[in-house]
Specification:
This protein is α/β, with parallel strands linked by helices and 398 residues long. It has a domain at 2-156: NAD(P)-binding Rossmann-like Domain (Rossmann fold, 3-Layer(aba) Sandwich), CATH 3.40.50. The chain is 47% helix and 17% strand. It is built from 17 helices and 13 strands. The chain has helices at 13-21, 37-50, 60-64, 78-87, 101-125, 139-148, 159-171, 202-206, 209-212, 219-225, 234-237, 239-248, 252-267, 287-300, 346-368, 371-380, 390-397, and strands at residues 2-6, 29-33, 54-57, 69-72, 131-134, 153-156, 178-185, 188-196, 199-200, 228-229, 304-311, 324-332, 335-338. It has a nine-stranded mixed beta sheet with strand order 3-2-1-4-5-6-11-12-13, with helices on both faces. Strands 7, 8, 9 and 10 form a four-stranded antiparallel beta sheet that branches. Strand 2 (29-33), helix 2 (37-50) and strand 3 (54-57) form a beta-alpha-beta unit.
Length: 398
């Protein structure tokens, strides 16, 4: 199997390469592509020392030629663009975050057109049955844009696997022994069931604040919802608190910029042959395992369970079939087959429905460049809503 990684100069990449190294025989040609030749040389150098099937190129057609799977993990504008996404909204007394709220909107506006161009190139150069696996944020919006254009695509996020691994560690079991009732939209999900060797453990977990307290949402709120929300839901449930924290805290982008510079210096060391421990502080924990395992299922048809972003087509009741949802699915060579999930409770569904409509408007704005549609998208975003800041906010973001 040939896998092309678009955005191969990312400091994430050694983790991804490690995931494939742990699954010998699944991939025999791993091509890293990036438009930054210098950065690709540094990251690719370590990747080649880790796994001898790795090659690098700055030519997109060469990377995509004959690929069976295309992994997209890019950041349009780099960390400096992320820094703007995280700081501009604060000037308007709004949350600054790279994948949700107005910052996530700005990132989608930059990213959707670029990813659609890459997907068109994949349609031309990759195999006709090639899969596009998107790890580029905002994953739900980008995946929906790809599917709207008829591409064979699914989205991947590391939130669910992170929760799964933490719970597995708590119980001292292998991760595959833990099944999550994980459902919603990307970065807007709730875990409403935790099966450990088939036994339901969620009520027990919710009664242990020392265990679930690290998920970023107040424990009493989890107990009220009878669910473990994605930590991104903190931006919705604790909005004022987060805005106050952001007034006095350091933007995450600045922290990541410093970590990335240190990582790149490490990667330049010719004696380094494995990912350094510092990479765990970069974010994206377990991405390598999630991505490599998903590609393995697409290659071998092992029908393993994954948590992916796909068309709804039924799993979440009261949501349009063309919405892109994040749910458990069994994956084989034909793709992802979502498993049924119980209906979302009204307070969850209200938020999911609102964000789904925001996503529709954001994709329309990203594709058309229409500022009125963009303004309507911000109005539809639950983290903006009010008209007063929209025009000035939109002007600053653009």
């Amino acid at each position: 199997m040939k896998v092309a990684v678009v955005g191969g100069g990312s400091t994430y990449t050694p983790e991804l390469v490690g995931g494939f190294a742990a699954r010998p025989g699944v991939v025999d040609d791993l091509v890293l592509h990036d438009i930054d030749a210098e950065r690709l040389d540094v990251v690719g150098g370590l990747a080649k020392r880790m796994l001898d099937i790795v090659t690098t190129t700055t030519a997109l057609p060469e990377a995509l030629e004959g690929a069976d799977a295309v992994l997209i993990q890019l950041r349009v504008g780099g960390q400096l663009a992320r820094l703007r996404d995280e700081t501009i909204p604060g000037k308007h007394r709004l949350i600054g975050q790279e994948t949700t709220g107005p910052g996530g909107f700005a990132k989608a506006m930059r990213t959707v057109p670029v990813v659609l161009d890459i997907a068109e190139a994949a349609r031309k150069y990759a195999r006709p049955d090639a899969w596009i696996v998107d790890f580029t944020n905002p994953v739900g919006i980008v995946t929906r844009a790809l599917l709207d254009e008829g591409h064979r695509a699914m989205g991947l996020c590391n939130v669910a696997i992170g929760v799964q691994r933490r719970i597995a560690q708590h119980y001292g079991v292998a991760p595959e022994q833990v099944e999550l009732g994980h459902a919603g939209l990307n970065h807007l999900t709730w875990v409403r069931s935790v099966l450990v060797d088939g036994a339901e453990r969620l009520p027990e977990l919710l009664g242990q604040p020392d265990v679930v307290g690290g998920f970023g949402v107040p424990v009493d709120l989890m107990q009220l919802l009878h669910a473990i929300p994605s930590y991104y839901l903190r931006y919705f449930y604790c909005t004022d608190e987060v805005i106050e924290e952001q007034k006095h805290g350091q933007p995450r982008a600045e922290q990541v910029l410093a970590i990335e510079q240190e990582l790149l210096e490490m990667y330049r060391d010719p004696s380094l042959t494995e990912k350094p421990a510092l990479l765990d502080k970069r974010g994206g924990a377990y991405y390598s395992e999630a991505a490599a395992a998903l590609v393995a299922s697409l290659a071998t048809g092992d029908n393993a369970r994954h948590y992916v972003n796909v068309r709804n087509n039924g799993p979440i009741a009261d949501l349009p079939d063309d919405a892109v949802v994040e749910v458990p699915a069994l994956v084989d060579r034909a793709g992802a087959h979502p498993v049924a999930v119980p209906p979302l409770s009204p307070e969850m569904m209200a938020l999911v429905q609102a964000v789904t409509q925001y996503e529709i408007l954001t994709i329309a704005a990203a594709r058309s460049g229409d500022e009125d549609v963009a303004a309507r998208a911000l109005l539809a975003n639950p983290l903006v809503r009010q008209w007063a800041p929209v025009r000035d906010l939109l002007g600053d973001l653009l």
